[in-house]
Hints:
This protein is mostly helical. It is globular and about 65 Å long. It has helices at 37-67, 76-80, 82-100, 105-110, 112-139, 146-172, 176-190, 192-206, 212-255. It starts with 36 loop residues before the first helix and ends with a helix.
Amino acid sequence: MSDDNPSTLAPTQPSIPLVTGPRPGARPGLDGTTSATAVDWLVPALLVMLSAVPVVAGALRLSELATGGEITADNARFFANPLPVALHIVSASFYSVLGAFQFSPAVRRGWPQWHRGCGRILVPLGLLTAMSGLWMTLFYPAVPGGAALYFIRLVVGSAMIAAITLAIMAIRNQNFPAHGAWMTRAYALGLGAGTQVLTYLLWSIAVGAENEFGRLVVMAGGWAINIAVAEWVIVQRSRRRAGQKGRRPAIASSRS
C-alpha cells in the first residue's frame, strides 16, 4: 500500500526506536522537518482500532458456527452454508489488521522486505475477502436493505477486486504511486465493516430503530466515508511528492 520505490528505500534496520524526534531515513515534511516515530504508528493504531469490533464479532460468529449455536432468523443462512461466511471472516480479519501496518512509514522504511512480503499476503487475502463477499451477496437469502444495498454490495466487491488487480499491474510496471493508490482504495473498501460500526451507532443515536432504509444508509455510508478518506490520502501523497520534487532543484542550486 506504499507508493515508495523499493530501490530508493534505506537498508533494513534491526529495530525502530519508539521515540519522538528525528530519526535516520525519516521522510522530511514540507517544512523540512522529520516526522516523529510516534506519528508513524498513529495511523496503523487507529486502523487496528477501527477493525477491532468486526474482528471480534467475526470471531464470535465463527465460534457460534463451530459449536452449533442457536439458529435464529438472522443467522440461519450462515448455518445452512457456513463456508462463504467463514472464508470472509478469516480473510477480512487478517486483511484489515495486517493491512493497517502497510500505512506506517516506519515499517516501509525500517523493514522494506517485511512490507513487500506482507503485500504478497494481502493481495490474495483482499481478493478472497471481496470474492467471498460477492458469494454471500449472490447466493445467500436477501437481507434488509433492499435492491439498492444488494447492488451496492455487488459494486463494492467488484470494485475491490478491480482495485487489487490494477495495483498488481501497476507494481509490475514499476508504477509505485499508482500501486499505492489502488491498494489504498482496496483497503478502504475492505475496511467498510469497521466504519459501518460507527455509522450504525450514529444512526441509532439520531433515529433509533433500524429499518430497511436505515440499513442502506448505515452500510453505504461506511463505504462512502472510507473511499472519501482514501481519496484524500491519495491526493495528499501526490501533493507531497510534487512538493519534494519542487524543493530538489532549489537544494541542488544552493549547493552549486
